[in-house]
Write a structure and sequence with these properties.
Layout (H helix, E strand, L loop, with lengths): L3 E4 L2 E3 L5 E7 L8 E7 L6 E7 L4 E3 L7 E6 L4 E6 L8 E9 L2 E4 L3 E5 L2
Parallel strand pairs: 2-11
Antiparallel strand pairs: 1-3, 3-8, 4-5, 4-9, 5-6, 7-8, 9-10, 9-11
Length: 115
């Protein structure tokens, strides 16, 4: 089992920034891929950003240039730096890990972008 705990969500004005954190119970290089997904009410859950154990990253087209995924291996933590936030970025953001043929999810953290 892999436990994932997100933090850092909140209310921010359009154009502002937030940094989300995801603390994992396993060393990151032992996890095949980790990432962030988001889901707004009535919408499909969509990929925001992902990172393999080797450091390869991928981003959803709608966040390229604004969001950055990074990691701190010593802390077993993955981050999502979100800049130039827009109201349409409002959603519950979930940390995700895939390893050993299984998918694991955090409980999510709410991000609301509103003036």
């Amino acid at each position: 089992q892999v436990q994932l705990v997100e933090s850092g969500g909140g209310l921010v004005q359009p154009g502002g920034s937030l940094r989300l954190s995801c603390a994992a119970s396993e060393m990151l290089f032992r996890i095949y891929i980790m990432g962030w997904y988001r889901q707004a009410p009535g919408n499909q859950r969509e990929l925001v950003a992902s990172m393999t154990g080797g450091g390869t990253t991928d981003y959803g087209e709608f966040v390229k240039g604004r969001f950055t995924i990074s990691r701190d291996n010593a802390k077993n933590t993955v981050y999502l730096q979100m800049d130039s936030l827009k109201p349409e970025d409002s959603a519950v953001y979930y940390c995700h890990a895939q390893t050993g043929g299984f998918n694991y999810w955090g409980l999510g953290t709410q991000v609301t972008v509103s003036s």
